[in-house]
Fold this sequence. Notes:
Elements: E1 12-18, E2 22-27, E3 30-35, H1 39-50, E4 53-56, H2 59-68, E5 75-77, H3 78-86, H4 93-100, H5 138-141, H6 149-171, H7 176-199, E6 201-202, H8 205-216, H9 223-238, H10 252-261, H11 271-275, H12 282-299, H13 302-308, E7 309-310, E8 313-314, E9 318-319, E10 329-330, E11 351-358, H14 361-370, H15 373-378, H16 385-392, H17 396-408, H18 416-425, H19 427-441, E12 446-447, E13 453-454, H20 466-503, E14 510-515, E15 518-524, H21 528-546, E16 556-561
Parallel strand pairs: 1-4, 4-5
Antiparallel strand pairs: 1-2, 2-3, 6-8, 7-8, 9-10, 11-15, 11-16, 12-13, 14-15
Amino acid sequence: MSKRPDVQRGDNIAIALQPEVxxxxxxxxxxxxxxxxxPLGSLAELNELWSPRWVWWDxxxxxxxxxxxxxxxxxxxxxxxxxxxxGGWKTSLGEIWASLLxxxxxxxxxxxxxxxxxMPEDDGDRNQPIQPDGHLRPEWVSGExxxxxxxxxxxxxxALRAMKLQEPLLDRLPDPGRARSxxxxxxxxxxxxxxxxxxxxxxxxxxxxxxxAEITGPRATSAIEDDRIREERDxxxxxxxxxxxxxxxxxxxxxxxxxRRQGHDLPDTRAWRLEQLxxxxxxxxxxxxxxxxxxxxxxxxxxxIDEHVRNGRLRGGWSSSDGAAGRMTASAGLHNLPAAMRSxxxxxxxxxxxxxxxxxxxxxxxxxxxxxQALIAATQGDDLYEPIATRLGVTRDIAKVAVLGxxxxxTTGESAHALAGLNKNYPVAMGLLEEAAESGRxxxxxxxxxxxxxxxxxxxxxxxxxxxxxxxxxxxxxxARNAIVQGAAAEFFKVWAITVRRRGRSLxxxxxxxxxxxxLVHVPEENAAETATLVLDAIGEAAHFWSPDPTxxxxxxxxxxxxxxxxx
Length: 568
């Protein structure tokens, strides 16, 4: 191992950390270990001194960095870049390494207890992370071997080697520079996700408990009491039945049959359909109220608070990619929080939220990635659909449905005629969508403009059923058509989010929620106006670095609120 080398700003330095032990480093041809009881504190000092691009294997290190609050902006997460290159989400470091070296995945070594007659094979030096067959040793993958400086240095060096193997794969994509930029921004977004998981979302816990009690009833103190509360909630619906009879309200088929007996022969029991009838029948109004209460009770009730809220913050897991088109995702119900519960998301004392929602992001992204000049011209206004409607000679509503239908693969209904107009007036954008759809129908993977592989699936029937095979191909086509737009929109959103994260640090602005196209930033009240301006400016900065066409206009609705429910 060598001594600490000279490092230039932006150099790639791989690290492996172990509390109470130290940090292993790998930089170019240099490898060294620094023994320290506080490796994360040392990392913070070196980050300020060098400002390099830190390279690590996966979320484990990102979580360590986030937990210590080390303000890192440049990083390379090997696992995150792997998902960009190979598609999918669930993977292991062993699979990542095997994929980079084209090793067979079915020979991946596994950790486990040996049988009585099993004898471990002589597989070389266990102080080295790589087996003679080229695979990573499972004990190294699990972290069990990261107990000394020599091992930490070896693990860091291997992360740097993995990065060097990934770079030429990025360079083989149609736009290598753009692909490398995406790899860097996706890695930073994964670090942001680790920070959001660590810091949590501000919650007024007392108000949450009060609201849950108001909607679902008091907290049960026993299983018997819980059953009684459920029965009372059911009774508020069943009392409206004539004649009275038992119905399992948690069974959609029984609910549909119940409504039919009451004179409502409906194709399904979706909420929007029931809401159209709620004013005319107290049974349906009661059923809708029951559903809202049941959802709170079962998913967002007392158990949810007990499990996920600590010290006034809702703690949920975050990931930078959903494994499909690459959207950010969250656990703990953060992505599906009912509107009735948004009032409990409340800024801490002396703080407010700056909430920002990108406007009409997917069609604007389609304009950018396709380069369709007519569609780009439509992005210059606040409302992209108005000029499209004028050009097609239809109402704004029909134009909107047509554009969304084109991206989601809907080709019937009132927008069908307008869709033909889109093909005529915006041939470049529509051609890009159709090209993706054709790839999906033929079971070929598609790629976002940033280089993310979106894998298709093979579900063609093996029984020769042509109709089923055609239906399966059509489903893939619709999925691929939307994935290239949704994936590119996700890439732009993440560039925006990490820009706000970086620039907002001096204002103590903390990104606490990334929901679809919406950011929620927690900030001291005195810095709110400046943060709101920063968030808007960051859209332009993100577009400058991300957009394939600099003339596309992106916009967002920004507001300053105390509670999430106050946002428009």
